[in-house]
Specification:
With 270 residues, the protein is of the alpha+beta class. It contains 7 helices and 9 strands, in the order αβαααβααββββαβββ. The protein binds heme C (HEC).
């Protein structure tokens, strides 16, 4: 496994992240502040998880958040929360960026880097209030208690009808069988792609969990597989069960994954 802190994330990486809709073809180390990945909601055990539909913030907290948003965030993100097209804080754009993940992913982003260039100017509690306001803006119901930092990891952000397949250009984690020859590789019997926030590195916890997942039914064409590890020869892992992280690109003629990292889980695959 590569140490994610040892990689250098340059201005180039930062700039490349802006035209997000166009970056899928570029084999770059895309990353967010958070290293959280979504629970594999679509594969198992999702029914009991708390979600943003369970009344996870209070109305008073959202009101405080509204004022804090106007004071500290609206200058860039706009009064309507969506005037920055690449960083929408409300509506479907926000949902597509953050759904099928736990609330601590979006909170980590705000806590570590917002307001841009002056993240420490706003206390964490106030940022939680802003997050409550964001939840209100996407019509999530209020409850009786404030949203608290230590509960965020257990709350999933999902739409009204529950988890849905991730949109194109999402960073994802998928498990399947490495299949192919020459320059032509696919992931077969793959699980539903789960949300990831980093695609060019993995953690021991992710690999352990991936090892327990049963095969799925999906197939993805793989792009940039050879760059996924130093001196990697895909043929060496032909037929292996692998964990693959990368950018999901939805296409009419078959979805593909631009590979960021690959780990072998077993040397056979069924
Ligand atoms: C000085 C301008 C500026 C201010 C002020 C600012 N932001 Fe941002 N924000 C940005 C920019 C630019 C991006 C996109 C680049 C990035 O993700 O780092 C962004 C991205 C984000 C994202 C990620 C959006 C996404 O979907 O990828 C979130 C969440 C966010 N901001 C929340 C906030 C909150 C909450 C505040 C107020 C506490 C705030 N921002 C204040 C400029 C700002």
């Amino acid at each position: 496994m590569r140490d994610i802190t040892s990689r250098s994330y340059s201005v180039r990486t930062f700039l490349l992240r802006f035209p997000r809709r166009d970056t899928a073809l570029i084999p770059m180390p895309t990353r967010f502040a958070s290293v959280t990945i979504a629970a594999l909601l679509l594969s198992a055990g999702a029914a009991s998880a708390a979600t943003v539909w369970d009344g996870v913030y209070s109305a008073a907290q959202a009101d405080r958040g509204k004022a804090a948003f106007a004071a500290s965030c609206a200058g860039c993100h706009g009064d309507d929360m969506t005037s920055m097209a690449e960083a929408p804080l409300s509506g479907q754009g926000f949902m597509d960026m953050w759904r099928e993940d736990s609330l601590d992913a979006v909170f980590d982003k705000i806590r570590s880097s917002m307001p841009l260039n002056s993240a420490s100017s706003v206390p964490d509690n106030t940022k939680l209030d802003v997050l409550a306001f964001i939840l209100k803006s996407i019509d999530m119901p209020a409850g009786s208690k404030d949203l608290a930092a230590d509960g965020l990891a257990a709350i999933q952000l999902v739409g009204k009808d529950g988890p849905k397949p991730l949109p194109t250009n999402s960073l994802t984690l998928t498990v399947g069988c490495l299949t192919g020859t020459g320059d032509n590789w696919s992931l077969t019997k793959a699980t539903e792609p789960a949300r990831a926030r980093v695609s060019d590195a993995t953690t021991p916890e992710e690999v352990k969990k991936s090892g327990t997942l049963a095969a799925g039914t999906q197939t993805f064409r793989l792009v940039n597989l050879e760059d996924a590890r130093p001196n990697f020869k895909p043929a060496d892992w032909q037929g292996h069960k692998v964990q693959l992280k990368g950018t999901l690109v939805r296409q009419r003629n078959g979805d593909r994954l631009t590979v960021g990292s690959i780990e072998t889980l077993a040397n056979t695959c069924q």
